């Protein structure tokens, strides 16, 4: 889901797109923000065949400027009938053996799309990750590296650049076994390679505690009043010089707000955060940080 300004809620909220009606609807108040939108993407309906294989798409996908042929290459299909199946399978093998410079890119883009779907990311982030990977691949210097970690790092950087950051732990959960350390190394490698290509440092986008609030609050099942209070508190906390990680600040603010509201959550409930697995040490630090945030906010009359 994406964010948009809702005139009834008077702030940015998550919106849901109704594909059947073409309406963009606010997920909190139900206001239709935009109606009868035209979907310019390719038709995705599928029709089952008689062989029980994967459903074929009735029409082709949109052109992809990152591929040499725009993604419009010819594919030999499998017709019905025993003789036809034998002939098509032979031709298919030769087709697969033939040189296709985009085969690796296509597989990489499919992997990025799968990871994006599992994280619920918007198409702009997926497209940005594809662009980043294409730039790295064009330099022909990524051979021998962990491909899953490289693709996950591209997605992590894309989230940062599109101002929709995800933590490394969240990216790691869909990275097909790549570890946090491997993804971190791949990220540093990509940033270095892109910097060498452009001659400038790569803009990653700053991470703020507020970037994680809505998702974390949703994971904890907090009510709207508590979510609003947590968002206001974390915005106020950014005015102070609190030298802690944004994720820790978000966890501390949420815990303090839930304790001050009627919707109390136990500290161990923060383990629901997909990116913040609480140990005893982290629980202690969250308590201290929460006390610091609360003190600074109350000192300024909030």
UniProtKB/TrEMBL annotation:
Residues 2-34 form the TFIIB-type domain. SMART domains: CYCLIN. InterPro entries: Cyclin-like_dom, Cyclin-like_sf, TFIIB, TFIIB_CS, TFIIB_cyclin, Znf_TFIIB. Keywords: Metal-binding, Nucleus, Repeat, Transcription, Transcription regulation, Zinc, Zinc-finger. GO terms for molecular function: TBP-class protein binding; zinc ion binding. GO terms for cellular component: nucleus; transcription preinitiation complex. This is TFIIB-type domain-containing protein. It comes from Gossypium raimondii.
């Amino acid at each position: 889901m994406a964010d948009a300004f809702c005139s009834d809620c008077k702030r940015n909220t998550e919106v849901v797109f109704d594909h059947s009606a073409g309406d963009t609807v606010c997920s909190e108040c139900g206001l239709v923000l935009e109606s009868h939108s035209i979907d310019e993407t390719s038709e995705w309906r599928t029709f089952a065949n008689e062989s029980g294989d994967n459903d074929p798409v009735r029409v082709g996908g949109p052109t992809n400027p990152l591929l040499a042929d725009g993604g419009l290459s010819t594919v030999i299909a499998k017709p019905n009938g025993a003789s036809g199946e034998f002939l098509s399978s032979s031709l298919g093998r030769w087709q697969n053996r033939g040189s296709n410079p985009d085969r690796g890119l296509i597989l990489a883009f499919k992997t990025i799309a799968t990871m994006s779907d599992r994280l619920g990311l918007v198409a702009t982030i997926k497209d940005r990750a594809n662009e980043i990977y294409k730039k790295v691949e064009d330099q022909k210097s990524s051979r021998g590296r962990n491909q899953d970690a490289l693709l996950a790092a591209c997605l992590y950087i894309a989230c940062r650049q599109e101002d929709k950051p995800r933590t490394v732990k969240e990216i790691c959960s869909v990275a097909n076994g790549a570890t946090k350390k491997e993804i971190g190394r791949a990220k540093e490698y990509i940033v270095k390679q892109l910097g060498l290509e452009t001659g400038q440092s790569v803009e990653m986008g700053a991470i703020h505690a507020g970037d994680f609030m809505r998702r974390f609050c949703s994971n904890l099942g907090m009510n709207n009043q508590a979510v609003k209070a947590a968002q206001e508190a974390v915005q106020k906390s950014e005015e102070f010089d609190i030298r802690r990680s944004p994720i820790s600040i978000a966890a501390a603010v949420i815990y303090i707000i839930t304790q001050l509201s009627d919707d109390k959550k136990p500290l161990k409930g923060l383990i629901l955060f997909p990116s913040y697995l609480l140990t005893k040490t982290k629980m202690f630090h969250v308590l201290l940080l929460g006390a610091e945030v609360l003190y600074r906010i109350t000192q300024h009359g909030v």
